[in-house]
Amino acid sequence: MLKVNKIEKNYKNFHLNCTMEVPAGCITGLIGENGAGKSTTFKAIENLIFLDGGSVELFGKPHDQLTAEEKQKIGVVLSGSTFSDVYMIKDVVKILEAVYPDFEKEKFLSLVERFRLPQDQKLKEFSTGMKAKLKLFIALCHNASLLILDEPTAGMDVVARDEVLTLLREYMEEDESRAILISSHISGDLEGLCDDIYMIHEGRIVLHEDTDRLLSSYGLLKMTEERFRTVDRSHLLKKKKESYGYSCLTDEIRYYMENYPDITAEKGSIDEIIMMTVKGEAV
Ligand SMILES: Nc1ncnc2c1ncn2[C@@H]1O[C@H](COP(=O)(O)OP(=O)(O)OP(=O)(O)O)[C@@H](O)[C@H]1O
C-alpha cells in the first residue's frame, strides 16, 4: 500500500536515507529518538518536501500522481498542523464536510463525545492532548484506507494513549485491507499495537523486524571476556564492553540459551534493543 524506496533528504546537519514498506492489513511502526528523522520521513511520504533522491509509491502510484479521490483515502496526522484557535468543534465539522466528500459526521461526533472533547469551547482552550485527539479523529473519519500518523499520542497521558491505541485497533478490525503507519518515540505504544517495527537513527533505518520476533527472539547476553572470545558470533548483532566482559544483542536468544549455559540471557525490552542497536559496537 505504501512503498518508500531509498528516499533522501539533505539538510545542513542531517541526511535522511530511508527505505520502508507498509503492506495492507498491517500496522507498521516507526520508532526513533528526537531528531532521528521520523517527521521528515512522514513529510516526504506526504509529498510536502522536495526529495533529493528516491521515490514514494502510494496505492501502487508515485505519490505526486495521486488523484484527488486517492488522496482522500489517506488519513494524516502530522506534527504541528492544526485548525485556527478560534474555531469550535462545530466549525471544524463544517470545514471537514466541505473538504471530504466521504466525511463521516456521525462517527466524528460520536468520537468527540466518547473522548469527552468540549463542544462549547474554542480550540485555543483545548489541552495539548485534546488537540491531538481531534487531529486523530479527523484522520479516522473520512473512510481512509491508509493512516499516516506522526506521533498521534504526543501530549497524551497514559489513559488517553491507551484509549487511542484501542481506537486504532478498532479501525483495523473494521476493514482488514486498511493499513497504518505510526511513529512514536514511546516504544510501549508501538509494542502492543504494531505488526512490525522500523527503527530510525540519524536518518537511517537501523532495524526492521516483526514485532513478535523482536519480543521473542531478540535479547541481551552477558558473558565474560573469555567466553566472548570463543562464542559463536554468527547471531550477535552488537556488543558493548562491560566490567564483567561483554553484553551483546542477539536476534537468536534461544540458540545461546541452549548452547551456552554459562551465558546470562535476558529478553530485552524494545528500549533496550534500541539502545544496543544505536549505541552498541559492531561485533
Ligand atoms: N526544514 C528544516 N531545515 C533544516 N533542518 C531540518 C528541517 N526539518 C528538519 N530538520 C532536521 O532534520 C532532523 C530530523 O528532524 P525530524 O523532525 O524529522 O525528527 P523526528 O525524528 O521527527 O524528531 P522528534 O521526535 O523530535 O519530532 C533534525 O536534525 C532537524 O533539525
TrEMBL record:
Protein name: ABC transporter
Keyword Glycoprotein: no
Keyword Transport among UniProt keywords: yes
Superkingdom of origin organism: Bacteria
Pfam families for the chain: ABC_tran
GO MF terms, alphabetically ordered: ATP binding; ATP hydrolysis activity
Protein keywords: ATP-binding, Nucleotide-binding, Transport
Species annotation: Sellimonas catena
Record-annotated ABC transporter domain positions: 2-227
